[in-house]
Design brief:
The complex is a heterodimer of chains A (374) and B (451). Helix content of chain A is 64%, strand content 1%. Chain A has 374 residues and is an all-alpha fold. In chain B, the strands form 4 sheets. In chain B, strands 1-14-13-12-15-10-11 form a 7-stranded mixed β-sheet. A 6-stranded mixed β-sheet of chain B has the order 2-17-16-20-18-19, with no helix packed on it. Chain B starts with a strand and ends with a helix. The chains are: A mainly alpha (374), B alpha/beta (451).
């Protein structure tokens, strides 16, 4: 431990201002604060500070994502095994799944952190840990067959255009991970939807067609869905890498709610909105909407992003409800896109400031009214 | 008519080092100082030179814009040093205390015979006026204003704060006289807020001429700003005055006995205090006098509490309004992978990301001054409101302050708050933003623009 500390202390002057490698200063700083809580002390204001910081907050989200992550590794291998009748055992399935997901993570983190560090260096600020989570989310919401160069471009787009141009984490309007997906969705639609993208290829063999439950519903209503609700809940079905298992997502949701990192208000109202819209329209039982596609994943991990969701407590109820309602509305009444969650969250990200504006104005009006009655 | 108000939002930081109700000694401060920096927006004008001898109650400096507002020496002795900072800004007037203490003598006054004008003049002449602050802005009250009412908080809820009943033991006549005096200054009455738990057993319950309120709940329930917000919130154009308990007693004492006496019980507290205790001291006393209570090592001397106090250093001086010293270990150390450790049982957090919220209410923590993380932009939105029991949207008000948008600041409640009300927001902030400074700068802007 002290050896590591000494090494870092020795390296520090090289990376500090005026040092040979000062251009990599923010990268060094990110690494240093990764290993060690910095020794900075309070200067003015409160003399003691809560032990919480954004690193701890973000790592909690990643821990909440772990069940989903581990399950997706298994599911990728499982779907390959099933489609090509390979007869793999458990560990082979896990290993093959891991080999498929690893490149996605490498690309996501290397490209994303490169741009994060670059902008931190330009702005002279510390590297923000927001990308920990974003980088972890991105591979989970794309089809496993996505070409890596596409992923790289989409990540670069989301970090630079989606976040840094607005001023970095805390200032962005749209959820960067979803922006990655939206970018891919509109730029390379063939790679993002359709029946042929959900199963990882086996070398030398043509892709196997395999529809998701949502696609089946869109084309043929409830009779066409070939999976039982239990199967969809457990999640051994085709779909984007991490969206399939409602069970694992629920585990993550419990941790987020328990620790208070994710807003239970948004999650609850989002589910309520989805259920209500599901009841109003469509011949599919409303709870199917919660199990199919990215609804659960989006509701727990995307809609609750504290930066891009509504910031006021009242606003959160409205925001969450509308996310859920619009997602199902899009699914039911838009024949073009089987999935509505991504677009719904991005839409509500756009309107979250408006919702907050209304709530804030209500506060202002209360204050003015108080002045008049006195 | 008394009113009971129960507050749920807030946080009592379980800091180690609370002083038991016992007086350890009477400290004999060698040096005593009055610092113009204790008063927001004050431009001081010196009235003494180095080497002048003064009595307790003699003027050291006055407000340049309102010369009637005087700032007096807390003890008798010789002006030893006039401390100046950059651009010759006056930082402190240091008095070396003499052997036998003498005070300026005034005649006793009968408050009930004075009108507001006369009362104001008496208080200003005797150097008691700076003890009355105004809200909005938390600056010294302007005697020409007509305050809507006057508020006194008779409860301390800040971390390790002194016990109100203990420090006011035997002071009831002084408090009563102080209240009588304040009653002459406003037609709206003197609101007196007590802790619900202490109300029944407290001698302050018998004071007359006040409107009683009781408050129940965690810090900042004892902040006068929070109490005003619940009793009679300030609207644009209105002014209320606030007086703290200590000052109220000092005002009453001076009116009764005719002596300028700002001695007080000072709580020596904090995780780095060897033996937390109360000492008999005086306003502005040198903290060197209580240095023996501090642990070895790199200790920070804070005049006031950990949330709003000032880091004055081991050779610094107690603040004008303070009756608490908090001793803290400096947190200048690295911690390997501290942010990811699943158990960090010695660390306290308001959030549920550590285990402290399950540890029970009795456990106390030896917090130090480490920031526990680097500064970031506002990311998490819901923590601030949980520690602010007012109908105010903290993040929006702060962003308006940062944007220097005066109209928004007005609309979102800048008149009702001063930095101390937002101190807990700063404590819990995961982004380590200097919230009190942002709000303070916002208030400075208002003072400049509204002048």
């Amino acid at each position: 431990m002290s050896a590591l500390r000494n090494t870092l202390d020795k390296m520090k002057p090289t990376f500090s201002k005026g040092g040979k490698l000062s251009a990599l200063g923010s990268f060094f700083d990110a690494m240093e604060t990764f290993f060690f809580v910095p020794k900075t002390v309070t200067r003015r204001g409160t003399h003691v500070r809560d032990s919480i910081d954004l690193k701890r907050t973000m790592i909690t989200v990643i821990i909440a994502l772990l069940p989903v992550f581990l399950f997706s590794i298994y599911n990728i291998g499982y779907q390959m095994n099933l489609a090509y009748s390979l007869g793999w055992g458990f560990w082979t399935i896990v290993w093959k799944g891991f080999l498929k997901i690893l490149p996605l993570y490498l690309v996501s983190y290397i490209v994303g952190l490169f741009f994060e560090c670059m902008f931190a260096q330009i702005k002279g600020e510390e590297v923000n840990e927001g990308y920990f989570v974003t980088g972890f989310l991105i591979p989970l919401i794309v089809p496993v067959t996505i070409p890596l160069w596409m992923l790289a471009i989409a990540v670069a787009f989301a970090v630079v255009i989606g976040k840094e141009v607005f001023g970095g984490t805390g200032m962005n309007i749209w959820n960067p991970a979803l922006l990655t997906r939206a970018f891919l969705f509109f730029s390379y639609p063939k790679m993002m939807s359709g029946d042929a993208v959900w199963i990882a290829h086996k070398a030398g063999v043509d892709a196997v067609s395999c529809a998701t439950p949502l696609a089946e519903m869109t084309s043929g209503g409830i009779e066409a869905i070939s999976y039982s609700p239990l199967q969809m809940f457990i999640g051994l079905i085709p779909g984007s890498v991490g969206e399939t298992s409602t069970l694992c997502i629920l585990l993550g949701a419990l941790l987020l709610i328990f620790t208070g990192v994710g807003s239970w208000k948004i999650m609850l109202s989002c589910v309520a909105g989805g259920l209500l819209m599901g009841l109003l329209g469509g011949d599919v039982p409303a709870y199917y909407q919660l199990l199919m596609g990215g609804f659960a994943f989006g509701c727990v991990f995307m809609a609750t992003d504290p930066v891009t969701s509504a910031q006021t407590e009242t606003g959160k109820w409205i925001y969450g409800f509308l996310v859920g309602a619009f997602a199902v509305l899009l699914r039911l009444f838009n024949p073009g896109y089987p999935e509505g969650m991504m677009l719904s969250i991005l839409l509500m990200n756009t309107f979250a400031p408006l919702i907050d504006h209304i709530v804030v104005n209500a506060n202002i009006r209360r204050r003015l009214r108080r002045a008049k009655t006195v | 008519m008394s009113e009971h108000i129960r507050l749920k939002k807030g946080l009592d930081i379980p800091l180690a080092g609370k002083a038991p109700a016992k007086i350890a000694e009477t400290v004999d401060p060698d040096l005593v100082a009055v610092k113009p920096t204790d008063f927001k927006a004050l431009v001081p004008k010196l009235a003494v030179k180095e080497g002048d001898s003064v009595k307790a109650g003699d003027v050291l400096f006055v407000d340049k814009l309102r010369p009637a507002v005087r700032f007096c020496s807390p003890c008798s002795g010789v002006v030893q040093q006039i401390v100046r900072g950059d651009k010759r800004k006056l930082l402190a007037v240091v008095v070396k205390a003499g052997k036998d203490q003498q005070s300026v003598k005034y005649d006793a006054v009968d408050c009930s015979r004075l009108d507001k004008q006369q009362m104001t003049e008496v208080l200003q002449e005797r150097g008691l006026w700076p003890m009355i602050k105004q809200r909005p802005y938390g600056i010294i009250a302007n005697g020409e204003d007509t305050p809507k009412s006057i508020f006194v908080s008779a409860m301390y809820t800040a971390p390790l704060a002194p016990d109100a009943d203990f420090i006011m033991e035997g002071q009831m006549e002084n408090l009563q006289e102080g209240i009588n005096a304040l009653g002459r200054l406003t037609k709206g009455g003197v609101h007196f807020s007590m802790a619900a738990a202490a109300e029944a057993g407290s001698a302050m319950h018998n004071l007359s001429g006040v409107i009683f309120h009781t408050f129940d709940g965690p810090h900042p329930a004892g902040n006068v700003g929070v109490q005003i917000n619940h009793i009679s919130p300030i609207n644009k154009g209105e002014v209320v005055w606030t007086v703290d308990l200590l000052s109220l007693a000092a005002i009453g004492r001076c009116l009764r006995t005719g002596e300028y006496d700002v001695t007080r019980l000072v709580a020596v507290t904090g995780p780095a205090a060897k033996q937390p205790c109360y000492v008999k001291g005086v306003q502005g006393m040198s903290l060197a006098a209580v240095a023996k209570y501090a642990e070895e090592g790199n200790v920070r001397f804070v005049s006031g509490d950990v949330l709003t106090g000032e880091n004055v250093g081991a050779d610094g001086f107690l603040g004008y309004y303070d009756n608490q010293v908090t001793l803290l270990k400096e947190g200048d150390y690295y911690e390997l992978l501290g942010w990811i450790k699943p158990f960090r049982c010695s660390k306290f957090s308001f959030s549920h990301l550590y285990w402290s919220w399950l540890a029970g209410r009795k456990k106390t923590y030896k917090l130090d001054t480490n920031t526990n993380g680097g500064p970031r932009a506002f990311v998490v939105s819901d923590v601030y409101g949980k520690v602010l029991p007012m109908d105010i949207l903290p993040v929006y008000l702060l962003k308006a302050c940062m944007a220097k948008d005066i109209e928004k600041m007005e609309n979102l409640g800048i008149y009702e708050v001063i930095p101390e009300d937002f101190a807990l927001c700063e404590f819990v902030c995961p982004s380590k933003i200097e919230i009190q400074k942002i709000l303070g700068d916002g208030i400075d802007l208002m003072l400049k623009e509204m002048a």
